[in-house]
Amino acid sequence: MQKGFTMKTTINTLWGRTIRWALAFALLTLGGFAAAQGVPRNFDHLKTGFALQGVHTTARCESCHINGVFKGTPRDCATCHTSGLSLARGNVVKPQMHIPTTAACETCHSAQSFSGAKFNHVGVAAGSCTTCHNGGKAPGKSANHWPTQASCDSCHGTTGWLPAKRMDHSTFTAATNCASCHNGSAATGKSARHVATSANCIACH
Q: Which of 115, 97, 117 is CA-nearest to residue 107?
């Protein structure tokens, strides 16, 4: 054995050759597929009017072009990402618990990932928050939210739950049970050093 030529060197050399042969085979296979479909290897997909971005850059051609048919392939997201449609096989599809909307997928999602979507609340009817914010389709009231029948947008904005607007107490009367909210959980309640009393909060505060 030559000086400095070890078993480890031999293994690394063979492994490197194996990887190079595997890559060459993969490129030839993909090139053969493209040629068989009449697509040049340097084909610019942007010319079709549909730029390959995000996860689409690594998707297999046949996942969108069924049976080698290129002409007439849909360009909208829903055709490939709606459960039950032929082009949706193997793709991520809209879940059953998706918020109800007729907006196009790309209104909230990008080709990079479906996660991290941001919903544009412009045009959403006032008082309809719980249609989505019910704890299933989208986050809703927490378990310790103070009891109320008011719509979410009475106190909260569309950019985040916090900070919430101050509760309007102007309609409350002496008969209002303050402790139903001011119990230390839903809202600030009596301090540990508060005088012992069964009187309603509104009697003094």
A: 117
Tokens of 176: 């209002």
Residue 73 domain-assigned?
A: yes
Top pLDDT among 107 and 22 is at: 107
Residue 155's contacts (CB-CB under 8 Å, 6 or more residues apart) are 164, 165, 167
> CA-CA distance, 123 to 119, in Å (whole number)?
11
Taking a C-beta distance cutoff of 8 angstroms, is the pair 39, 45 a contact?
Answer: no
Give the integer Cα–Cα distance in Å for 97 and 100.
8
Residue 166, domain member (yes or no): no
- Condensed to tens digits (0 to 9), the pLDDT of residues 6-46 reads 554 554 555 556 666 555 555 445 444 444 445 556 778 88
User: Contact, 121 vs 158, CB < 8 A?
Assistant: yes
Query: Do 34 and 72 have their domain in common?
Result: no
Please state, in angstroms and rounded to a whole number, the distance separating the CA atoms of residues 8 and 14.
10
Domain membership of residue 70 (yes or no) is yes
DSSP state of 130: G
Q: Please calculate the CA angle 89-91-93 and round it to the nearest 5 degrees.
A: 100
Q: How many domains does the structure of the chain reveal?
A: 2
Same domain, yes or no: 35 and 74 = no
29 found inside a domain: yes
* Domain that residue 86 falls in: 51-98
